[in-house]
Automatic annotation (TrEMBL):
Organism phylogeny: Bacteria, Bacillati, Bacillota, Clostridia, Eubacteriales
Residues of the full protein shown: 543 to 831 of 831
Subcellular localization: Cell membrane
Every EAL domain range: 24-278
Name of the protein in question: Diguanylate cyclase/phosphodiesterase
Amino acid sequence: KAKEKGKNCYQVFDESMHAEIILKVNLENEMRQALKADQFTLYYQPQYNTPDKSIYGMEALLRWDSPSIDQGAPLDIIKAAEETGMIVDIEKWVMKNAFTFAREINAIADKDIKISVNISPVHIMQSDFVGNVWNSIIEAGVDPGFIGLEITETVMMESFASNKKKLEEIKKLGINIYLDDFGSGYSSLNYLQNLPIDYVKIDKIFVDNMLNSDRDGRITATIVELAHNIGLKVIAEGVEREEQYNFLNLYKCDIIQGYYMSKPVPRGEVLKLLKFTTNNCLEQYLTDW
Ligand code: C2E
Ligand code: MG
Ligand code: MG
Ligand code: MG
């Protein structure tokens, strides 16, 4: 019987699977090397208070100049990292860097700047997830109140109860939680109701469509109102045009993020973008970077 089974196994393990495994192993090695060689970088996209367009915070976004993956495709990088299991090490690196930046920037800014990072569901499922977040906070020496984790609805499709518990622990540490890409997937009210979130990010798809019809517009306005009624702040993603800005401002969306205000920029450009008043401190930082 064992022989039979072995034979079957051999049959399904064909040429194309072999090639796929080799590719995966190569990619995993490449990612491990890239981490060691500091070839990953973070770009930061600022988020602005809607009414007065003052800076609110920033989202950290992963970039990698890799020979095998297109630099402009972070989603491919994330997917590959999830498949090879490298996502945990990569996100530990992301947290360490973004959290350190959050400490540095808040030491010189004249107001609080929140920095959020994206977290993969694959990472949240790991038993050491909460520990990884906490270690990154300690290592960076940052006030957890300056930090946010962006999670997506897919996080909750598996192991809802245990993921929810982890997020509650994170929240108890004083870290902010953002529900990302709201409106792009299942968008269950259950998530808004039962997860310990502080912010809802309305997906670009909604922002793209909200001016198409009266109906689409009212849906967006209603999401904002609903979120406010349960004590959440609302961030609109992918705001590209002035009419979109005007609409979101009219319907009291708290925060906007998108090319209309700024694309994601490398860390060295953040200070210029924030237009801090020039002082010795700023000069110092600009030269250090
Ligand atoms: P996201 O978290 O929804 O991030 C927003 C994405 O929209 C970013 O794409 C940003 O560059 C883009 N964007 C912002 N404003 C505009 C706009 O006005 N117009 C257009 N067309 N695009 C805009 P990006 O940097 O390509 O990242 C794509 C996705 O990759 C992110 O979507 C996030 O899901 C994922 N990602 C990036 N970094 C990480 C990471 O460190 N960990 C994990 N798990 N995922 C990450
Ligand atoms: Mg995000
Ligand atoms: Mg998003
Ligand atoms: Mg998105």
